[in-house]
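The pair is quoted verbatim underneath.

:::
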Amino acid sequence: MKTMKKIAILGFGRFGKTLYQLLSPDFEIILYDAQKNKFKNIKLTSHTKIASNVRAVYEADTIFYAVPIPAFETVIKSHQKYFANHLLIDVLSVKTYAKKVFQKYLKNTLTQALLAHPMFGPDSSKAGFKGLPIVLDKFRCDAENYRFWQNYFQKKGLKIVEISAQVHDKLAANSQGITHFMGRLLNEVKLQPTSIDTLGAQKLAEIKEQTCHDTWDLFKGLQTYNPYTKEMRLNLGKAFDKLYNKLLPKKVSESTTIFGIQGGLGSFNEEALLVYTKKHHITKFKTKYLYTTKRVLDQVHRGNIDFGLFAMHNSVGGVVEESIHALAQYKVHIAEEFAILIRHFLMKRKDVKFSDIKVIMAHPQVFKQCQDTLKTSYSQYQLVSGKGDLIDTANLAKALVEGKIPPHIAVLGPQNLSNIYDLEIVAADLQDNKNNLTSFLMVNRDK
């Protein structure tokens, strides 16, 4: 009776079990996994043994490494002392990384290494292995060993693909990499089957189910250790934006330009918008008062407005934090940056005595622009900024006259609010710098 070749499989996760299913009929096998519970309820052949320690693994002539990509170097480094005239075969999804690790730890040794990537897994091999591809790179493998495994895989019905590690990773990024990424993406949007699914929808659901069966470590490893997958993901993002933008109308309305602004009626944003429209001779336009930069950018992104306007920087108060944080969440095209002179007026309801007022409300940026004046002349007042839409001073003035906030409050903002809401001006020009310039950004979707 011919003696069976002795091999070892190190790592008995989902793919380790698949590898065992492929190899177990033909070899004497040593299995090892640090988590012993992985061998529970597994039917093993009579010529299979479970190694009690790592040293026993290297009683085999050939060792297959079915470990997570992030753990691979740690395993090879810690097992280096056991290497002799062995053949080491990795089955990682990323070949340039495996090659780099082997080069590092097998230098000046007689240990051979074969780079392999079975292009299948537990789900895709349920019906058998015939016709499934396996990538091989001869690397540090002698002709005899390479020929043996090449012939063996062919006899098992596998389709041999001989390419270099670099070519493999380039191809895999736009094959396995994009498939797994799309599967996880579909899972993130919680794709669920429906009663009216087309064949295409069913295939998408299959991709989601198949890829999400694998561990997060596997997914993260093949996405981050392959040097070409980042570019794939960036290209996907660019393609998504391009396609999304193509579906948006060139203009919300054929006859009117729709602007969305950070402020409300009578705000500095509206003053800035009037400066912009006059400069560009825009006479037919509609203004949407959106109050916050985040809402402006969201409406630009959704294609509900043609242009968005918001304050970005003030010569005294510095950057507008609200706008900085919102900009970090959206991709937009800056159509124009321009500045206007800002003056701040302290106003109250006419039916309230100023002596009864204890609180001044305004946008946080307004307080920055008037901080020295407020500290010198109004230190006894509590300075408060509104939440949500009430962060906008113009909206505060509206809420004040409508009784939506307590009447014994003064607002600090543009003079125009006194005319719109019949407020009494208590003090003028509270800004610390009389040349108080605020820069605004006009943005739209990047077509």
The chain is about 40% helix and 20% strand. The first strand starts at residue 6 and ends at 10.
